[in-house]
Amino acid sequence: MRLWSLVNKEYAKEEDIQKGKEVITKDAMNGNNKIVLEGRDIGVAYGSKYAIKEVNIKIVRNTITAIIGPSGCGKSTLLRCFNRMNDLLDARIEGDILFNDYNIYSNGVNVAEIRRMIGMVFQKPNPFPTSIYNNVAFGLKINGFKGDMERQVEYALREAALWDEVKDRLNDNAYSLSGGQQQRLCIARALAVEPEVLLMDEPTASLDPIASAKIEQLITRLKEKITIVIVTHNIQQAARVSDYVNVMMVDDSMIGRLVESGPTREVFESPKSKVTEDYISGRFG
Amino acid sequence: MRRLLDVGISRLSNLLHDMSRISQECVAMAINAYLSDRDVVQEVYSKTNQLAMLKEEVNDLAIELMIRYQPVAADLRFISSCMEIAYDLVRFGRYAYDIAQIREQFGDLGGCDKSMIASMAEMVSKMLKDSITAFNNKDEGLAERLIEMDDIVDSSYRNNLRRIVGSEKDDGMDLRCALSSVLVMRYLERIADHAVYISELVRYMVSGERVR
What we know:
The structure holds 2 protein chains of 2 kinds. Chain A is α/β, with parallel strands linked by helices. Chain A has 11 helices and 10 strands.
C-alpha cells in the first residue's frame, strides 16, 4: 500500500487520490509492471537557461540503467528529476515523470514519500556525524517506522554488504569507517526504508578500485529487489554493471539532450549515433 | 586526437596486412604448382608456419588492447574481427599446404586434365583477393558480392564432382587424376568459404550487424 501514501491526503484533490488508488491497485495486481519510471519530454531550466530539454526516458524495473555523457551534459540534473531533488535547486521542470504510471510532479504529491520510495546516493559519502547504527536508523525514525528497528538496521546493513564489517562496532562514529564503507553505509541508509528505486550519482567517483568493485558487486546484487539508475563518468563501469545505457550530450546551445538509449551490449557494440560512438571510444569528452 | 588505442589498432592492421599477403602467396603458389606439376611443399609449409606465428601475435596484441583500453563500438568490432580473420587467413595457408601435398601423395599428375581446377582456382583466388580488399578498405559492398561469388564456386564444385563421377560410365578418368582433382576442388571450395567468413566479418565491422 505504499503508493497510497504518495498522495498527501491533507492537500490532495479527490481525483489525485482516485488516481493514487488506481495505481495501487494496478501495482498490487501487477507487481511486475515493467516500466517503473518514465520521463516524457523532460526539461529543466535554471532561470532562463535550459540544462536539459525534451528528454524521453524509460527505466525498466529490476534493472540497472546507466546515464553516461561528458561533464555538464545534464546527467545529474536528469537523475535529480526522478525524486524531485531539483525542487531544492529552484529549477523549473517541464514534462512528466511517471513513477509506476503516477506523475510525481502532480499536485498534492507527498514529496518526502517520493524520496523515500526513490532513494538517492551521492558522489561523496555523506554519513551523519553519529553512530553507524543511528545513520541507518535515521531514515526509519523520520518515516515513523514502527517495526523492529534493530532488525531493520541489520537488514539494511546486510543488504549493503556491510554487516560483517560493522556488526561489532555499531555504536562507533560513522566517520571511523573507510570511504568505501561510508558509501555502503549511505546505501544501507537508503535501503533501510525499502525504496523501489535507488538513484546513484557517481557513487564510486571518490573511491579506490577495490571499494568501487565492492559497490559494483553490491548494486548488481541489489537489482534483484530494486531498480537502480546510476550516473557515471566511468564508461567501463557503465559497461560492467548496467543493463541499459542512456547517453547524454550537449547540443550547440549547450543544452543537454538524450542522444541514445538501449541495452548495454548494443550501445557498446554497435551504437547508432556517431556522437555516442566517438564519446564511448574516447575520441572526445 | 590520436588515442593510445589507435597505435595498437594500427599495429594490428599491419599484422593482418602481412598475414593477408602471405596467405595469398601460399594459395597462389600451391595452385600454380599443382597446375604445372611442381613440388612446393616445403615453401608452402614454411609460409604456413609464418602465418601461425603471426596469428598468435594478432591474438596476443588483440587481448592486450582489450585489457589495456577496454575498446567498444567500432574499435571492439575491429579487434574481435581481427582475431577471427587471422584464423581464416591461417586456414587459407592450411588448405594451400593440403593442395601442395597432393603431388607428394599422388605422384606425377602431369597427364591429368586440370582445366576444371584451373577455372575454379581462378574464381577462388579472386574471392580470396576480394575478401582481403574488402577488409582493408572496409568495403561492405564488395563483401556482400563475395556471397554471390561463393554460390558460383559451390555450383562449380558440384558440377565438377558430377562430371568426375559421370566419367566412370564413359571412358573413365584415371583414378589418381579423379581423386586428386576432387581433393583439390574440395580445398578450393573451403578457401572460398573462409573468404565468405571474412566478408561477413567485414560487414560486422562496418555495420555492427552479425550475418554469420
